[in-house]
Amino acid sequence: MPKIVPSAFEQSDSHSIEKVVQILSNEISISTNPVFICGVNRKINIGNFENIDVYAGITLPLSDVSIEDKEALQQAVEEAAAYGFGIVSKETGERYLLIKESQQGS
Q1: Residue range 40-68, pLDDT digits in tens
Q2: Of the four listed, 22, 25, 77, 97, which is most buried by Cβ atoms within 10 Å?
């Protein structure tokens, strides 16, 4: 098992991806506005044929967007994708680097 620096461990979440999807599904089912869900997963090879999956996801409400206005909805989704994937890519990237740095020190 790899040594993980305390800051990486503190930022980790013990929820599995399935649990996160279940939590999000419960929240989305009560929403009356369109929402956009995005996530990024990175697989980190930690040696000895072991891998760690690092995942971050976000749900963004698309406020003041009607599903009847397809052009406005398309524009809102494109903006949410750029914003949301930027956030979760940064988060998974930072955790990826923490784990890789801890592996170099062991």
Answers
A1: 888 887 777 778 888 888 888 888 888 88
A2: 77
Dist CA 62 CA 73 (whole Å): 8
What is the amino acid identity at position 102?
A: S
Cα 74 from Cα 53, distance rounded (Å): 31
pTM of full prediction above 0.70: no
The residues, ordered by sequence, that sit 6+ positions from 24 with a Cβ below 8 Å of its Cβ are 37, 57, 59
Distance in angstroms (rounded) separating the CA atoms of residues 54 and 94: 10
Query: From CA 49, how far away is CA 61, in angstroms rounded?
Result: 39
How many Cβ atoms sit within 10 Å of the Cβ of residue 91?
A: 17
CB 76 within 8 A of CB 82: no
